[in-house]
Amino acid sequence: MQNDSGYKLPDGFLWGSAVAAHQLEGAWDVDGKGVSIADVMLAGENHVSRKVTDTVLADGNYPNHRGIDFYHTYAQDFDLFKELGMNAFRTSIAWTRIFPNGDEDEPNEAGLAFYDQMIDAMIEHGLEPVITLSHFEMPLHLVKEYGGWRNRKVIDFFVKYAKTVIARYGDRVKYWLTFNEINNQTSWMNPHHLLQDSGLKDYPEEQAQELMYLASHHELVASALVTKVAHAINPDLEVGCMIAMNPVYPATSNPKDIMMSQRAMQTRYYWGDVHALGEYPTWLLKYFEQKNFNIDITEEDKKILKENTVDFVSFSYYMSWTVSDPENPLYEYDEEKNHGDNPFLAQSDWGWQIDPVGIRYAINWMWDRWHKKMIVVENGFGAFDKLEDGAIHDPYRIDYFKNHIKSVEEAIVLDGLPVFGYMPWSGIDIISASTGEMKKRYGFVYVDLDDFGEGSGKRYKKDSFAWYQNVIKTNGAEL
Ligand code: P53
């Protein structure tokens, strides 16, 4: 039976989908919400970075202001997820709904009440909530007034926000993720990633790398403190880090490429080392010395990191990369330059390489290194979809999911690794994070809106909807 993997997953496996507040809620200035980083990002397109404005301009096209109006439609959208059979849902809390500027003394009750209702609705629909605390949407005020995460004070603001929401929703939300794709900033040469992950803006270019490591250190300490806070509120709560997992393979068997790929993996995934093992890897501390970077890692920080490692590792997986850089004697990994096409892999329309084997490889690699249970909280295929007579035929998406889910099942069943859920991006079509486009679609549910917010907003089931429904019904046995 060509379509069946034959692998049945453990009972209680989480089958869901994942999104982020700023990419679908809209209602960017409703009920006291403050302005976030995502609110000053204009629409971009494939290979054209999104421009960032200093304030919100009256005539700018800011797709995140609209999202798909999920702020008002979530109950109907959860009806569709329930019909599909999902038992889990990942979204983020928009920090700016709770602390609009980030540095207030008291939270915004209207924002807290909104997520009370949304979380209750998830549970009524049989969806186990998985909540991200920070997903590319920090208050713009903290960027402008404090310099983003380069400032140690931001740790306190974040921990206060996290404590507020974990105390409020901890009776209903067991799984918490701290920083979405914290390691995207390996691309510190690209200002987009530094702003999204760390709220870094207006810095001297030659300081970008050092600031990235400094900001990341503060995030890592904040993440450990949030883990501590959550466990103090209720020891049954589980906190995970969130890693963008893109394996970086050597492009050739030249030992210099093998070494470079090892260094690329060490560079991209040290955030996982600190989260899961509670300490910095030696090579990186040596690198800070060689570069004269002052990262301000105090004895107290080291203790916090060591005592509060994560309960699990969550990760996104979309693609793999290759590296070849034999003329680089220091093996410094430059993420913006070092990738070539892998001749064995096809690519999406956005140039993302399609590599189902890579997700099994990645799960094995993370287990060997971190020994933490894992959950896939993003995986998916951004594509152009066409609505014709109320139908969307998306065999390319089904194909992508079929091959990737099979590979995850092999990691679980054949390799015996603890993966406790699979939450593809994004269940329903939403705004793309990298390009701000609506036409780069990931959902099982189509949303009739274009890049300018024009359209009926109506929801339609794609062919992949029924396909994923059956995968969940058979607990992964029929793909
Ligand atoms: P979009 C870059 C590379 C890999 C994953 O991405 C990325 C990014 C975005 O900067 O982001 C994650 O929408 C992210 C989501 C995002 C999703 O992947 O650019 O956690 O917010 O939407 C897909 O196609």
TrEMBL record:
Its EC number is 3.2.1.86. The active site is at residue 378. It comes from the Bacteria. One of its GO terms (molecular function) is 6-phospho-beta-glucosidase activity. The keyword RNA-binding does not apply. Keywords: Glycosidase, Hydrolase. It holds the Pfam family Glyco_hydro_1. InterPro entries: GH, GH_1_N_CS, Glyco_hydro_1, Glyco_hydro_1_AS. Belongs to the glycosyl hydrolase 1 family. NCBIfam families: PRK09589.1. This is Aryl-phospho-beta-D-glucosidase BglA. It comes from Periweissella ghanensis. The lineage of its organism: Bacteria, Bacillati, Bacillota, Bacilli, Lactobacillales.
